[in-house]
């Protein structure tokens, strides 16, 4: 395949015009450094972060303009002279925080996120340092592989980053967003029991099909934490809770957690001002742990698990064409999606 000198790309030009600040424009295909890998990107997926950046609602540092989206997948078309881990034809995914290789996040690596601090994945070609890519699981197509860098790695980090999930343990996942569905799939593959919450009866049926052992409607049962706890053996509570609701869910998570359990703080879909004091962690004898995606080492572990268990990410029925990325942002903003929302790249 001959590589052109220019390409189409979606650039976030600023944060004052909402999604109109997202511009589809021509740009150069990046030059390949000796440690770089040139990737023909075939798909990208969106995260709430991408929407928040475009709307000027993202609370962490960004450096615009940048090509949008942290999550991409594609095929290696050329490698620099010093590259050892990849060859032409390899299928790859991007690493969210390009500098986060292993261990804890550092001040330096937190500033290396694609689609905000570095050029993202919503373009035809990207050059990434070889340490900024991971081989895609062989059981996934490009669209499926594009869902992994942010939501999936975050769930993996929640379940394995501190106190690895064991078979037979109990996991609570909240709602049917990308992070929670990955956590459900990873937990079932690990032989754990899963209690899922949702606001919709239709989605409850899908959660059951995906393997959820129990589903609770959080609108019908606002005190779902106590209900979830009663479902666990001896009413002892859940070992892991994937906390994405923030203000609206924290009280319930604290009510459902087991002594010694972990509530992983990931998002605040329901607001960012929880009513509970952090001293509740002492009262409930549990760990409250914030995470920011995860390392390349964790992503590699996760990709092996996805391949070994033939896990397929839940992708929304609507996959958008490349020139309609802005429509994809609007569709997701209107919360019309189920699971991951993807864009195919020409
Ligand atoms: N810390 C990190 O590294 C990290 C990484 C990725 C994502 N995040 C954050 O994690 C959150 C989830 O991300 P996502 O990609 O999974 O989002 P998403 O796909 O947009 O999730 C949407 C779903 O969340 C559920 N939901 C909404 N409000 C809720 C509430 N008050 N209580 C319980 N569930 C609620 C709904 O499920 P139902 O329709 O079934 O009710 C909704 O369909 C976001 O805040 C995101 O910014 C953080």
TrEMBL record:
Coiled coil: none annotated. SUPFAM superfamilies: GroES-like, NAD(P)-binding Rossmann-fold domains. Gene3D superfamilies: Medium-chain alcohol dehydrogenases, catalytic domain, NAD(P)-binding Rossmann-like Domain. One of its GO terms (molecular function) is oxidoreductase activity. Pfam families: ADH_N (PF08240), ADH_zinc_N (PF00107). Signal peptide: none annotated. InterPro entries: ADH-like_C, ADH-like_N, ER, GroES-like_sf, NAD(P)-bd_dom_sf, Zinc_ADH-like. Residues 18-343 form the Enoyl reductase (ER) domain. This is NAD(P)-binding protein.
